[in-house]
Amino acid sequence: MKIERTKNAVRNTKWGLLQKLVNVLLPFLVRTVLIYTLSAQYAGLSSLFTSVLSILSLTELGFSQAIVYSMYKPVAEDDRDKICALLHVYRRAYRIIGSVILGVGLIILPLLPRLIHGDVPADANIYLLYTVYLINNVISYFLYGYKTSLLSAHQREDVISRNTLLYNIILYGVQCAVLLLFRNYYIYTLVIPLATVLLNLLNNQAVTRMFPDYKPAGTIDEEEKAILKKNLVGLMIGKIGGATRNTLDSIIVSMYLGLVAVAMYNNYFFVVNGVTVFLTVVNPAISAGVGNKMATESPERNYEDFVKFHFYYMWLAGWCCVCMMCLFQPFMRLWMGESMMFSEGIMLLFCYYFLMMKQGDINAVYYQAAGLWWHGRYKSLAEAAINLVLNLLLGKLYGVPGIILATIISFTCVYFYGSQFVFTHYFKNGKLTSFYLDNLYYMAVTALVGFGTYFLLERLTGARWDVRAVLAVRLAVCAVLPNALFFAIYGMRKRNRAYVKQAFRMLRRRAADKL
Fold first, then answer.
1. Is the model's pLDDT at 275 over the cut of 90?
2. How far apart are CA 222 and CA 288, in angstroms?
3. Residue 391 and residue 413: Cα distance in Å, rounded?
4. Which residue blocks in 78-212 are alpha helix, DSSP H?
5. pLDDT, tens digit, for every residue of 221-270?
6. Separation of alpha carbons 317 and 462, rounded Å
7. Using CA atoms, how far apart are residues 460 and 467, in angstroms rounded to an integer?
């Protein structure tokens, strides 16, 4: 089957951005209402439960991606029997995974008080509330969660985005209404699994309509099972590092500092994640196209795309980082007030954390599309182990700054090792050193532009300014000045200058087509 890569990527990006926008703004609204109608402790409790259950969900890590990767070739060849057999494997595995998560989740129930330092809200039954979160976590495994692999393999992430958009509007709208009308955390929590059932029904309806001939039936041969298992184990292990970063941080903050500190930490991380989700929409939008192109074109041609994508992405990530440096504290002051703010130093650590994580995103797209999970299986285990040890040690000694530093150090320790696999096993053209130098260059440029803009705005917007005026002026400056500086600095480098010109030509053509 021919995949319309460009058309699908544009469509996926459009709907993905809209869905991500709603997925940032509405949870922000709900979190604000939750803290102001109940208390920060309830927000901390929600974050803690989510983190604990994210650890349990490591059981599933990567299975959906391994299945989608296995579907690329049969989709391209229109091999319906193979696709149906993979769906059958996926459904059976999902039911087993859901049962394991449910069982282990129930075993953890007696340990919950040990994960919370200090008091919990007086009227909160943490065992009952956690059970509701646990049920929500396993619903998709027993309904139709496996069917979304068909949409991903056909590069139709836009369908998932549309359904998730409707789900988010219903979920967060009802939760806000419940908090404002009843101020009841139990009803607020019960809404979540009901909305998850609705999302699964919507996805099932879409898949049935678009792919009526695909049913979970048949088997795959032993050789294919061995390849799938190998990819699955490598991918699951490879995902552990990324999946445990924030979840471990929140749990350690709760253990050492209590629920209010968890709420403060996650308020800042909520902003970082809000910026991140806009960038991550790029990855699923191009990943199926990259996978298809890697199956049909040479490594040399794909390497040219890789370098170009990485440059565009790091420019965008650098601009986001600069905006965060300049807008973070005024926004937190307006949103939560002085009592719920961290220091400037901790804020800058969050910004550096964000930029560090973004360096490997395009590399990860090619790593996954090439199916190299087995080769990189140890790097995430090392990251998770280092992160856990340093979180416990530095969190005990230095609190929140130590916990953020632990995550940064653990990621840095394995970053240089983990980046090599795409170059060693796919590109094979000796460009790894160039990739590292490019990243150092992008980091240096971002630091130069970031601190230059930051200190300029610190002088421009004085302490006597109203916080709304500060935000307005800084937002206006950040929209223009950093990008002008990036353009000037990157334009000094011949290769990057060519990419900028190419992007402008493409935008001009699309604008002309719409007129």
1. no
2. 26
3. 14
4. 80-108, 126-142, 148-153, 157-182, 185-210
5. 888 778 777 766 766 666 676 667 778 888 999 999 999 999 999 999 98
6. 28
7. 13
